[in-house]
Amino acid sequence: MSQLLSSLAGNELAGFILVLARVTPLFLIAPLFSSAMIPPRVRGIIAVAISIGLTPVALQGQRIPTDVVALAGLIVEGLLVGLAFAFALSVLLAALESAGSIIDVIAGFSYGSLINPLSGESSAVMARFYSLFGTMIFLVIGGDAWTLRGLGRTFTLVPLTRPPRLGSLVGGAEHSFSMIFTAAVEIGAPVLVALLITDVAFGVVSRVVPQMNVFAVGFPTKVAVAMLVVGASLPFVANWISGQLSSSVGAALGALHAG
Predict the structure, then answer these.
(1) 254 is in which domain, residue-wise?
(2) Number of domains in the chain
(3) pLDDT tens-digit series, residues 151-201
(4) Quick one: which of 54, 107, 171, 220 is 20 to 30 A from 3 by CA?
């Protein structure tokens, strides 16, 4: 018993704490794992369970210092690595929500803001729809397994006792953040083009038939066009999510490998 307690108080316990520090950001900002629909206590239990499973893998060939100051520094470094990895994945859902927000503003859906059950924040119809659709596709294509495999790979690229290179982490986060707007426009492009054509068409009609109330007719027409094109473009969005998930995991691991 004394040997077991000594083991738990030594390398294994310190390694578990460092693994938990790297896993925790996943349940703060990563898609699905950070969903507000999952109670915080349940997220904490899952984080601990994942950390217990990853600890033997992460500790291979590692000797964790038990000094409090050194261990605190390693915890901060683990949090940075976890944040970098989780942020690269969170861009995926952020781009989808941004695309939905742009469509909401142009189509007029922004007047009816509702609570997004995934984030707990107020969002309009299309932003919420794209968020739920993206989460569904994330589950269907095994995004949770992709995420956990990628997280396990980080322990090979950046061992627990090796500090990451901040320059590569910041550069990777900056690149991921800069892609949000571009990806949002790419996702919403079919709907935006259709709504632009609709606006131009009603502009021409208002010049030809000035007595017609364009606003009364145009708003429901834009809503119908937006709904029709969104429904037709969903397969494209699903393919985009599938490709972007692998790209996001690869980019996150590439930034860590560069470090």
Answers:
(1) 2-258
(2) 1
(3) 888 888 888 888 887 777 777 777 778 888 888 888 999 999 998 998 888
(4) 54
